[in-house]
Design goal:
The chain is of the alpha/beta class. It has two domains: about 120 residues, no CATH class; about 220 residues, von Willebrand factor, type A domain (Rossmann fold, 3-Layer(aba) Sandwich). The chain is built from eleven helices and 15 strands. The chain has a six-stranded mixed β-sheet with strand order 5-4-3-6-7-14, with helices on both faces. A hairpin with a 2-residue loop joins β11 and β12. α1 packs antiparallel against α3, α3 runs antiparallel to α10 and α6 packs parallel to α7. The termini are far apart.
């Protein structure tokens, strides 16, 4: 059984319909026999329904049940018999650079900017078409959390561990994030690389982020796209926990309100030949950025390898189900009857006539 695979193993539960239908058939046969016994005595049933075969009816029901079982097996999609197929993987390279500074804890986008960005990145993974993806987090320092990979499971694990402690130093080093992301690309081929930087753009350090974006494109052909996350007009307070209680960050005795500042992010996108995407509400979708990237960049072949496959075998069960249905329609529930020959029929008529004459003949009186 280890060499058998199924396309839709959950459909195996439909096999429970077969014994259910069998029970319905059994109940129907029982009701029919019960009705006949109430209608006439046993010695009259053969005369009343002489040509109906109960055995043939059971055979027809069995054919229906077998056809149903074979149809369910076809739906399950069994596969066996190994062959090897050469798979060519094509796509683009994407490094996601995610801001993990404390301002990303602001709750103007629920549950907060950082968690909403992580959810959006997770949704983006579902739309990737074989692309390689990597992860860099940044605040005061930029840290590579996941190298370029096609193993989206490992990327998700790295993303799940991201929080505001993922960078050892506070701040917002947008330029360092670009330069660190640039180092993550594994080849020198241009035209298939992009950085998606997600940040609230607040209080960026003087690390020349716009120049870093321009250099990434000019030197390595890396397109820089930026996503500004947060409310531009009002913003929100930055929650912190002190002595086990939730409070808000203060500066000089006043609560700090954080707003998304798009100016630097927009300039980075322009100089990086990318796009700027405003994520000012909770319903934003990074799929729009991904669609723009796929239309902008060249798709390249990363690798070609042989993958183990199994031959589909559902057609055998589908064909069997069809044959069983045809057989059921051809089987009649009538008994075979042997018609008497003309000679035997004529002899029978003569015998019956002689008997009638013998019974009606008047014998003479003595």
């Amino acid at each position: 059984m280890s060499d058998i695979r199924f396309d839709h193993p959950s459909y195996v539960h439909f096999l429970w319909l077969v014994p259910l239908v069998a029970a319905v058939f059994a109940y129907g046969f029982w009701r029919k026999q019960r009705g006949l016994r109430l209608f006439a005595t046993a010695n009259l049933l053969e005369a009343l329904v002489p040509r109906v075969s109960t055995t043939r009816q059971h055979i027809k029901a069995g054919l229906v049940l077998l056809a149903a079982a074979a149809a369910v097996m076809a739906l399950i999609g069994p596969r066996w018999g190994v062959y090897y197929e050469e798979v060519h993987r094509k796509g683009v390279d994407i490094i996601v650079a995610l801001d993990v500074s404390r301002s990303m804890l602001a709750e103007d986008i629920a549950p907060n900017r950082l968690e909403r960005a992580k959810l959006a990145i997770g949704d983006l993974l579902e739309q990737l078409e074989g692309d390689r993806v990597g992860l860099v987090t940044f605040a005061g320092d930029a840290v590579r959390k996941c190298p370029l990979t096609i193993n989206y499971g490992s990327f998700k694990m790295a993303l799940a561990d991201v929080d505001t402690y993922s960078s050892p130093r506070g701040g917002t080093m947008l330029g360092d994030a670009i330069r660190r992301a640039k180092e993550c690309f594994v080849d020198r081929v241009k035209d298939h690389k992009t950085i998606i930087l997600i940040s609230d753009g607040e209080e960026p350090e003087t690390d020349y982020p716009v120049e870093a974006a321009r250099a990434a494109y000019d030197e390595s052909g890396i397109v820089v796209c930026t996503v500004g996350i947060g409310d531009v007009l009002t913003g929100a307070r930055i929650p912190i926990v002190e002595n086990g209680q939730k409070t808000f960050l203060k500066h000089d005795g006043q609560e700090v309100w954080s707003k998304m500042i798009p100016a630097t992010l927009q300039d980075m996108a322009v100089n990086g030949e990318g796009m700027y995407y405003p994520a000012e509400t909770g319903d934003f979708d990074l799929g729009e950025v991904y669609d723009w990237i796929r239309n902008k960049l060249e798709v390249v072949e990363f690798e070609a390898k042989f993958t183990e496959r199994y031959y589909a075998q559902f057609q055998w069960f589908a064909g069997l189900a069809l044959l069983l249905v045809v057989a059921e329609t051809l089987v009649t529930d009538r008994k075979k009857t042997n018609k008497p020959s003309r000679d035997r029929e004529g002899a029978g008529k003569k015998n019956r006539a002689a008997t009638v004459r013998e019974r009606t003949e008047v014998r003479p009186e003595h």
